[in-house]
Prior knowledge:
With about 350 residues, the chain is α+β, with helices and mostly antiparallel strands. About 30% of the residues lie in helices and about 15% in strands. The chain has one domain (about 45-55, about 75-345): Neutral Protease Domain 2 (Neutral Protease, domain 2, Orthogonal Bundle), CATH 1.10.390. Strand 8 (about 145-155), helix 1 and strand 9 (about 185-190) form a beta-alpha-beta unit.
Amino acid sequence: xxxxxxxxxxxxxxxxxxxxxMRLHFSVRNxxxxxxxxxxxxxxxxxxxxxxxxxxxxxIQGSASASPADSTSRQRHYQSRDADLIRxxxxxxxxxxxxxxxxxxxxxxxxxxxxxxxxYKMDREIKFAFGIHSARFAVRRDTLGPVALEIYHxxxxxxxxxxxxxxxxxxxxxxxxxxxxxxxHEARIIxxxxxxxxxxxTSGNCIPMSExxxxxxxxxxxxxxxxxxxxxxxxxxxxWWGNQLMPADAPGAVMLTESIAEYVTLQVFRRHYGDAxxxxxxxxxxxxxxxxxxxxxxxxxxxxRVGTEQSYIAYGKGALAFNALSHFAGETQINExxxxxxxxxxxxx
Length: 349
């Protein structure tokens, strides 16, 4: 046992054979936050726990050492560390006045001894990337065909819910029309406190999103990108580019996820806001790329070899490059090529 690195070596009494399984029981105790030390995402109202709280098996290798020539890197997808895909099911207990949320369909909810319980189960395998939420949420609901749409938000943060729902619907429709069906029955946006970050991500059929995206002002006269529309559109697009298509754990992986997701989001953005706003969006991506490359300490790789940490290339340069391809070859032609790629490798992570 290494207490400093929190690493333990366990020896099983019986070998675990290929295709076999075993149960692992563990408990996690919360350490309260203080004025000078923040240790936990467990809050009185707005808990957000990610897969990091679970024990991980094996040695976590840095992505910088991955190589396309490494045969083992081609045997796992770009976000797999100790599991390619998992079957996810969770029963969550929380305070009696809160709603608990996790990936999956809500199978059952009940109350017992003053607490509320929620049973979620995914209808298909997902990546080992998920979040567990609990808060006194208000809920905005809608539908798009057979897909139930939900936004769980802090009461009083209703400013941008219309734009969020519009971005979610527009991207779902565009991706389904061009690249195939959405693989889940629900799509949920879930607000989490800024104390956990300012990001948004995709986990199962959920889109955890920082509260800053719920209250951000788009700018007078539309001078800034409307994050309330853009963020759900980008994240739901990852259901196709990053979840249906899962590239190998090697350089260039995020070109097939982030770059394509930015390109698709741009097309959705253009249809909703017009060419002028789309050009402004591209201008911000150009600025992101040029600013990022000034601080690059290593030689800048081409887009097809971009590293997972080089977001200025994956997002900035990637959006510009795919937009240029679409401009010269045509949006329809590019989308047909992308659809062919997805059809060949769909769910083969």
